Amino acid sequence: MRRPSTLVNVVLVFALFSCSTWTVWSRSGSLCKHTNFEEIRRPHSVSITEFGAVGDGVTLNTKAFQNAIFYLNSFADKGGAKLFVPAGRWLTGSFDLISHLTLWLDRDAVILGSTDLNDWPVIDPLPSYGRGRELPGRRHKSLIYGDNLTDVIITGDNGTIDGQGSIWWSMFKNKTLDYTRPHMVELANSTAVLISNLTVLNSPFWTIHPVYCSEIQDCFFLMNSHVTVQNVTIISPLKSPNTDGIDPDSSDDVCIEDCYISTGDDMISIKSGWDEYGIAFGRPSKNIIIHRLTGQTQSSSGIAIGSEMSGGVSEVYAEDIRMFNSNNSIRIKTAPGRGGYVRNIYISNVTLVNVTTAIRLTGLYGQHPDDGYDPNARPVIENITIKNIIGDQIKNAGIVQGIEGDNFVNICLSNIILHVTSSYPWNCSNVQGYSDNVLPEVCVQLKERIIPDHSSECYHLSNLEPRSNN
Asked: Can you point out the beta strands (E) in 157-296?
């Protein structure tokens, strides 16, 4: 297929920009609905050095972080406080945050995760998983942790948090772990959370994990989003195992914007619990915004939903996504026994270069936590709209495979132009949907036209104006 020269030019310009480790957009036009955090001034501030911390990269500073935060807790009802981390390399084990706190990292500050496993305490598994994600039983606590908090800011002048995860990756590969690996940042049951203007490197496991951040009353402070992740760079080696970038989990009102992610697993993975445990816990993820995201992942996906989605996922809006040198772009992962649902998903304005599969929806993915799952708990996958995609050097346009007797329905594809190298660009089964203006020609199960007959069956297409992919 001969493509217009304008498409080639766009792709070439994008490929040049992609060599940078940061996005190239301006911050105008934010979709994250919150007040200006830069205007928030904590009336009390201390430096970590006031509590004996030494930034030599060797001295363990866990107690200094813990003591500083314990001291700052006395200011929680007085407007909150700021903990300043100056230039230096600050080695630490896990520490807990508090409400009404700003953790501020100087441009040349690096918080280093300890390489001693004893500095990462072992805690109970999440109830929506029933066990550690990797091993039965408990799990290691994240490097930076918080539970049942409100008004928490982790930010700075693009300082760095480095999990030094290689020891964990080696143990995982050698099967010598006793417990599931820790995340880098986990905030549970919390609201009014901002993570911004940071570089996060080498997470042992998932990098940023907001979990159960939903349906919290008294959410009057700071913003409409429960969790905002904005202007964050996340990098782990492309072969590091399961180093997801940002994983909203059983959470709602999450906004992810202006981020660059290059990791060994999904750039973003939206989750809501695992099989019978997720079904029983019943906490969905919903109202998730992903805006202006750039990155790569050689092993997994740019935007993934699942595979743990047993509590349900809905109302996901993703726009302005740029991916290069990656495996999958958009992926929904589920399986018989998961239960739950994925519905009302809208993804638009996606630019791809050198991606194996542009769109991948699969109903036969992933393991189960134990033998207690119900194999008859079938997931519902419906109302998925994907539009305005251009791509060069794409192997497969789409692999869209539902579950026999449990079709994925109302899958709608619009304005998708891909330069595909495979002789069989589409592979579809147990799926029903519609399409308009898709090249290469879509599979027969999705060939029925959206316009004029089926726009009302396609999520958001009936009430949103088309937007330019350029």
From this structure: 159-162, 185-188, 191-201, 208-211, 227-235, 252-262, 268-270, 285-296
